[in-house]
Amino acid sequence: MGGVRTFPFHMSEEEQRRFAKAQERLDRLGGALPVVNVGETIQADEEAAFLRGHGTQLVDGKLVATVCGIVERVNKLISVRPLRARYNPGTGDVVVGRITEVVAPKRWKVDVNSKQDAQLMLSAVNLPGGLQRRRTADDELNMRNFFEERDLISAEVQAVHQDGSIHLHTRSLKYGKLEKGQLTQVAPYLVKRLNHHFYQLKQFGLEIIFACNGYIWISGPSEIPDKKGASSELLVNVSNVNEMHQCTGNKESTVPTEKREKICRCANALRVLNALGLLIYPESIIDTYEASLMWGTDIKDMLSGEFHVKVLEREVSKRSKSV
Amino acid sequence: MEYISPEGLRLDGRRPMEMRQLHAELGVIAKADGSATFEMGNTKVVAAVYGPREVQNRSQQLQEQALVRCEYSMATFSTGERRKRGKGDRRSTEISLVIRQTMESAILTHLLPRSQIDIFVQVLQADGGTRSACINAAALALADAGIPMRDLVASCAAGFLNNTPLLDLNYTEDSGGGPDVTVGVFPKLDKISLLQMDSKLPIDLFEKVLELATEGAKATAEYMRERLSENTRQLVSARGLLRF
Prior knowledge:
The complex is a heterodimer. By secondary structure, chain A is an alpha+beta fold. Helices cover about 30% and strands about 25% of the residues of chain A. Chain A folds into 3 domains: about 1-30 and about 180-220 and about 255-323, no CATH class; about 30-80, CATH 2.40.50.100; about 85-180, CATH 2.40.50.140. Chain A is built from 8 helices and 16 strands. In chain A, helix 6 crosses helix 8 (about 305-320). Chain A starts with 12 loop residues before the first helix and ends with a helix. In chain B, the strands form 2 sheets. In chain B, strands 1-2-3-5-4 form a 5-stranded mixed sheet. Chain B has one domain (about 20-55, about 60-240): Ribosomal Protein S5, domain 2 (2-Layer Sandwich). Chain B has helices at about 90-105, 130-145, 170-175, 205-240, and strands at about 20-25, 35-40, 45-55, 65-75, 115-125, 155-160, 165, 180-185, 190-200. Chain B is α+β, with helices and mostly antiparallel strands. In chain B, about 30% of the residues lie in helices and about 30% in strands. Classes of the chains: A alpha+beta, B alpha+beta.
């Protein structure tokens, strides 16, 4: 028997043995991180005052964890950060979401893998024809021409309110509808915080959005639109949203097979990292991608037990070198 | 019928105060937010937790706290005789309710306003004590999903047959017609969140049986805690030493 967790891939006996061994070595390299589980007392300095943070509760004057995770201490504040939880939004995070509903009073509901659906107000999107324009009743009626149910969008978290409701905005050219790519879901806690969440993998000709909520979007590089030409054209037909839509989304062009294969390989690299619980950031993806090329692994074989074991062993040897 | 042999052994060879072998696994369902299987001897159940997520039926939405839903079902192949069971029969509705109430008392629902948590438990093999096994599996699945809880909930049953209190009844003992006490406890807080009994028992004997069941539940909790910490450590060490 291996560990406690069941993995979503099949392994032969030999592979299982190698996997367990690699995991054990990883465990040893892990060092002593302060880990707690539900209902365990958190060791706090006696005498010293402490502040109760997220994931903790007070029971008879002692701090007890309410989730399983890592204990974090910032001065007096003690909190527990859960692993494998849903996305906990923070203002300024880049997210990718799926429109679930177009709700009557000027807003869209967006699924962002959080405790509740986020809201995208009509006033928080860029309308065609200038940045600061009054939202007319016409715009409200034409909301479906921007985003329909099941559309994917990238956005930024504008605010998280006291009651837990999340507000998004897309008021920048980099945000908006996503097309011609693939969405891959990973655990939010594995996504590393970066300076830029829009990342170009130039060597593969791919673009990745490392959304903090674990919805990762991979696409070929977006054709850079002629901004000046487009905007002047837009000014002419300000009210006609339909036409605006047609000039941004060039629907006829298709993605060539070669590019699709690259996208799929990248997506599978993500899936492998996610299944193994390894951290997800540009370098780790490039590394896995290149490893799959080096070993001559087919795209479909990347989800096999063998590839998972190899990636884990590679990670172990890399970490033991750096220690 | 003799439930205890003259040597003091039960039908399956256990002592009266002995539990069955426990086994738990986490993360068994890739798509769920949290999942676990729990085995007590030949009883095996699987639990999946989805959420906290947006409330599906808006009229059920609660402004101040999370909505907890639970669905219990038995696989057709779970019992000796193959039988198809409907979703809405009385027994499963009652057990769903029991599991839901127990879990709701453990979850800090006020931290998750306007959201919904779905718990699905299914019995894969039934050999007595499915109620307890379901509660244990659901508690592990909730912990795996990172849902804040007051404490772990652990459950165990005890009965009284042949003038002896018996811990963790199996199917044959359960159908012996004696009393069957199921408890759910918060091990850290040392509180009881669930207490059920069918048939009658004198009060002094009841206390004995209850104490036995509570002890059993605490032992189960200890095992669950071990499995959870193993799981958490595994997740942390894979992710790496990096700060969040």
